[in-house]
Amino acid sequence: xxxxxKYFGTDGVRxxxxxxxxxxxxxxxxGFAAARWAGGEGAVLIGRDTRGSxxxxxxxxxxxxxxxxxxxxxxxxxxxxxxxxxxxxAKAALGAVITASHNPAEENGIKFFASGGQxxxxxxxxxxxxxxxxxxxxxxxxxxxxxxxxxxxxxxxxAARLLPAGALRGWRIVxxxxxxxxxxxxxxxxxxxxxxxxxxxxxxxxxxxxxGVGSQHPAALSERVRAVGARLGVAHDGDGDRCVLCDxxxxxxxxxEILVILATHALxxxxxxxxxxxxxxxxxxxxxxxxxxxxxRVFRTAIGDRYVFERMQAEGARLxxxxxxxxxxxxxxxxxDGLVAALKVIEVMRATGRPLSALRRGLRKFPQGVDAIAVxxxxxxxxxxxxxxxxxxxxxxxxxxxxxxxxxxxxxxxxRLLVEGETDASxxxxxxxxxxxxxxxxxxxx
Length: 446
Known about the structure:
The chain is of the alpha/beta class. It contains 14 helices and 18 strands.
């Protein structure tokens, strides 16, 4: 994680469409650089979410990739994990998705998958940046890239095979697709398994992705689950690599709760590889307590599902993820897949005969508070003396009964604060101290 990158964050390149980075000229340059990094030979598969800027950016990226020697194929609107699945199945040299994930519609981005379907490392992204030409390549082909609509159907069929045929007959499930890339895929899989599906966020128009719906805004999901008496609710983000769930009472489960359900069930069955779960520094300390009580081990890593995957490989683990809802079941996919996560939890519900409201009780969360402060620039934390002092004092005060995490968002111009402790009061006091320190440092600069 030490490679220096100017454009890539924790999940690709993102920014406002039409700005200095996310525009057609930059996408073409990025495609050319990625093709050179990949060796300039082989196929590359390109998917996108439902943003209005997606088709133009995908076409520009394809022109750059073709100019660099690769053979681009446009897959149309497709969840990120489905692109990863297609890359792996086709043994393509590279995969790419035009998406800004959970960000608003006016933003967009580019992320890549290596030939094995996994996200690129920091070092790989740094090498691509080093190959960026100053201008779009002059030899970019004018002809459109090839198109292949089969990837969606192949992903749907593969996902439906994760449960027995007819496994969801009699189930009523609410699915919130965030007006994004899962609008057709996830509902189709649940229906193929026999479920009655009630849709939310399923009318994308190019400008409403993540707008008050999806995994970032689960209130509507909760309300609809209660209103229709559903067995559970599933919400994705814009590109489908995240999942949050809603139990039959309308209570929301985040990624930590999903991971504990999967890990403790696998431990009870003796099937959790290396008896290990990998989570990030963002996950609640209650995850560690629950998994250790069940006889497992927990490893933590930096924020970002690719870092989770890298640690999983190092530890021999097959399950990992983030509290945000990225869940990796590496025996199925090398990256976060919101649909797979939902299906795996449903598998536990069927195996145990227990409702989601009962399964979630396996995790007792430590009180946790979070905040995000908008910043104009991401100054080194070491250059913020008031914040450094506040972090040190709060860390000493909490000791082993809590923790402090301060980091910049990898996808937005925000400083993220997290405090965990034994009581809500201590957490809120700690957050207030950090906020005050940040404001003092920012005021000193301005």
